[in-house]
Amino acid sequence: MPRIRPKKFVHVVYRTRRFEQMLQWYKTVFDAKVQHHNPVIAFLTYDDEHHRMAFINLALAQPDGTETEKQGLIGVDHLAYTYGSLNMLFENYEQLKAEGVKPYWCVHHGVTVSMYYADPDGNQMEFQVDVYDSNDAANAFMSGPGFGVNPIGVEFDPDEWLARIKAGAPPSDFLERRVHEPISPIRGAMDR
Q1: pTM, whole model, 2 decimals?
Q2: Closest by Cα among 116, 102, 101 to 155
Q3: All domains of the chain, ordered by start, with CATH?
Q4: DSSP-assigned letter for residue 77
Q5: Which residues are paired to 107 by β-bridges?
Q6: Is the distance from CB of 87 to CB of 165 less than 8 angstroms?
Q7: Are the C-beta atoms of 169 and 87 separated by less than 8 Å?
């Protein structure tokens, strides 16, 4: 079976202790607009994509880290790649799992269904599929109350979802995020 490849590169997430300064710099340099902003996390875009960059405020997310830990945490959290369909995302999951490569975190963000992987050096990447057919619909979700209550998402079991997909469940059964309990905004980056 041929390998499944992403359709496009979509966003980067930064960890910072200069949260507001970083937001202002990226808004200025990219003429970006804020899609969602709370004290811990912010999402920005400069085009029709729901977000091209996100920022995690380490000053709030990990306020009591040592200076060494602070330096080690600042920087790129992960890069994200979009797949063409939910089925392709899960075919890729199945192929990688057969090679011994498994995600460390699977989460339905509301705008994407995502699986997070780490390479041997610990560089993190998100493999995702968009939930909405249009960027306008994704942007509307990010502006809505569900995203405001939980801008991170809801975890899922990829093996359970894969079994349901193989049993014939349509992609629409997986795309709407129905649960709104908050989870830690740095769960994926810190709990590996």
Answers
A1: 0.74
A2: 116
A3: 8-190 (3.10.180.10)
A4: E
A5: 114, 155
A6: yes
A7: no
